[in-house]
Design goal:
The protein has 176 residues and is an alpha/beta fold. Helices cover 22% and strands 38% of the residues. Strand 3, helix 2 and strand 4 form a beta-alpha-beta unit.
């Protein structure tokens, strides 16, 4: 696919994404059937995934967002900066962290440590995408939508310098 000077190759179709989100929604609805968890989306990338995910639930829930920065263009900076914190009180609550992609693991480790400091009743990590070949994790990810190769991808909330988030599927940039 050609898009504004970029050649994009499909990695995961919009149909496959929606089917997997429906499965995840059913799984989380069973897990939290007697609870009202707080879904915490990591901005900006997770907003489309989170919107579709909470619509796939059969339970009541709350939601909040946290915004971090760890990338510049297609490269990780190696540090995480907190740009917007959550406003919800999460002590003794069931927390579901919703991430678009886990790449190096730096951001999710930062968020996990930050949330656990508030003593939640439980902490579940859900990611649409995981790059297992490069993720340096000392803990398991509870729910993984898709595992992908260690390549830079865009679409469905994922961006390249804030662009291409709106694309309905996941694409690899071939060249610009």
């Amino acid at each position: 696919m050609h898009f504004h000077g970029y050649e994009l190759s499909l990695v995961i179709s919009d149909k496959d994404i929606q089917n997997r989100i429906n499965e995840i929604g059913r799984e989380l609805s069973v897990k939290f059937k007697d609870e009202v968890p707080i879904f915490i989306g990591i901005l900006n990338g997770s907003f489309i995934f989170m919107a579709d995910l909470i619509r796939a639930l059969d339970i009541d829930c709350e939601m909040d967002f946290i915004k971090l920065a760890s990338y510049k263009g297609s490269e990780s900076t190696g540090t995480v900066r907190l740009l917007k914190d959550i406003s919800a009180e999460i002590t003794n609550r069931h927390i579901v962290i919703v991430e678009d992609i886990i790449d190096s693991g730096l951001t999710i480790k930062f968020i996990k440590d930050r949330m656990q400091d508030a003593s939640p009743a439980s902490l579940t990590i859900v990611t649409l995408l995981l790059k297992p070949d490069v993720a340096n994790l000392e803990f398991p990810i509870d729910v993984i939508g898709f595992e992908i190769a260690p390549e830079f991808v865009v679409g469905y909330g994922l961006d390249y310098d804030q662009k291409m988030r709106h694309l309905p599927a996941i694409y690899r940039i071939e060249k610009d």
